[in-house]
Structure formats: C-alpha cells, structure tokens
Amino acid sequence: MPKRLTITVLAVLMCAFAEAHATEPVSKEAEFKDRMDKLDPRNSQKDRLEALKWIIERSKESQAKAALPGLELYGKNEKDDGVRAEVVLAIGRIGLDQRPRMDCPMILLEALEDKSVFVRQNASALAGQFKRFPPKTVEYLLGLEKQGNPNTRSDAHQLLALAGGKDERVLRVLRTATKDKEFWVAHNARIFLFQVTNDLEDIVPYLIQYHANWFQTSPTAKQSTEEEQSEKTRRDILGLGIIVKLFGLGGKRPDEMAAAYVKLLKSDEVSLRRAMALYIGQFFASESSSESLWKFDKASGDRKKN
After folding, report:
1. How far apart are CA 22 and CA 16, in angstroms?
2. Residue 78: its pLDDT value, please?
3. CA dihedral 266, 271, 272, 274 (to 10 degrees)
C-alpha cells in the first residue's frame, strides 16, 4: 500500500475513533462525581454553588443518594456560610425526594446549632418535613432545647414533637415551654403540644384568650420602631390564623368544639368567659351573621373595627 494512502487511512480511522468517543454519553455517575469534585474548597464560591444547584435539581436520582456521605463531609468542613447553607439544602432535598423517603439526616439536626442563621433556617425548614428520625434524636434535641437561643429552642420543640411523639420527656418539656418568657417560644410549644396530644381542652382556651387579647388591641396604634411594627404585623397574622384554626377545628370536630365553648362560658375564670363571649359576639352581634365586627382597610391593610 502506498505511503500516502496508508497515512490517509490512518487519519480517517483516528477521526472516526475520536468522533465515536466524543458522542459517547457521559454516565450519571461521572456527572455527579464531576460536581462533587467541584465542591473542593480550592474552587471558587461560584463554582461550588453552581455544582450544588446542579445536584439539588437532580435530588431524586439514585446517584444523589450515593453522594450524601460526601456532601455531609463537605458540610462539616465548609467555611463559607452561603455554601454551607446550600450544602444543607442539598442534603435535605435529597433525603426528602428519594423514594422511599429517607430518615432525617443527622447533619440537619446538628446544623440547628450552626453559627449562620441561613444554615439554621434551612436545617429547620427541611428537618421539619421528615417523618422518621435517626436513633438518639430525642436525646440530642433534649440537649439542644436547653440552649438559650429562642429560635433554637423552638426548632428543638418542633422536632421533639415530630420525633418523640408522646414520650413523657417530650411532653414534659413542651408543657414547660408553654410558660416560656419568650412569647413565640411559648406559643410554638403550645401548638407543637397540641400536634402530639390533640387535646382540645388545652388548645381551645389558649386560642380563644389570644383572640380576645388581639382583638381588643388598637388596630391603628403606631409602633415606634421598625422591629416593633414587624412584631405587630406577625401578631396580627397570628390573630387571623387563630380564627381560621378555630373554624377548621369546628368543621372537623363540631361536637367536641361545642362542648369546649360551653365549658369556657361556664368557666370560673372571668377572663375566659369574657374571651369566649367576645369571640361569639364578633360573628353574631350584628344583624347579619355574615358581617364581622372588624374588617380590613384595603388600602392600608390595617384592621378596623366597625
């Protein structure tokens, strides 16, 4: 064969070989490995965040589950708060999106103690969606509950209700927390306790009393600081939520709710009788029961009494 022809044939074969390999699909395992490699702290924050976004978007894949040990290792060693928050998000989404759904990864519970509020928020929001938890979760959360941070205590209370159920230690902690000096800690503990006990005799008086206190506050009172105004808005939203909650309970458990209302009207505590009467009056004191004794100003969003 002439030398020139030999060279031509070899060139054609090499091009065909290169083209075949160029079009060969990359395996999912290889793609995940490539993204995991990009989480190396020596890479830029942008590259690490893009790799995590890619993994989160494929959280249902079996390869994502296989990546969990590596993600947990990165999460414990990552120094950047923003990247660490996304690692927690990735771990939580994988655990929730796999089928069957996984137990809550322990690192989500540990992340509740993270110094970054964004990491803690992601961990709390995701952990609260799981139905099953690893061994020793209750013991871990009982220790976490003793910390001074109100948000951390509330997070622990929520997860204790989910993971511990009617464990006497959990019930004791939640009942104690309903008397916490921090309003939102006490309120949340009351709600979490109800989720465990389903006890109307405990939750209904609380909801009715809150409604009365909220309803009687001045809806147009101006707050001196932005923080105080924000807190007032949260309390107003809670007041509306309580009305919706009471309506919902009345629809689901009408006989029990009627008995609870009658009991409040006969209570020895004047404040509870007044609160119950106010709640009833809000909807039935006017000529038309469809009218409310208060409404919202559409322009300002403020509550206004008629």
Report:
1. 10
2. 93
3. 70
How many Å apart are CA 275 and CA 22, to the nearest integer?
Answer: 75
- At 152, which amino acid appears? T
pTM of the complete model: 0.80
Burial status of residue 108 (CB atoms within 10 A of its CB: 0-12, 13-18, 19 or more) = buried
Going from the C-alpha of 80 to that of each of 115, 118, 265, 267, the distances in angstroms are: 11, 11, 56, 56
pLDDT > 70 fraction of the chain, expressed in percent and rounded:
82
- Token pair listed for 53: 């976004």
For 53-102, what is each residue's pLDDT tens digit?
A: 999 999 999 999 999 999 999 999 999 999 999 999 999 999 999 999 99
Instruction: Calculate the CA 101 to chain-centre distance.
Output: 17
- CA–CA separation, 159 and 113 (whole Å): 14
- Are the CB atoms for 56 and 92 separated by under 8 Å? no
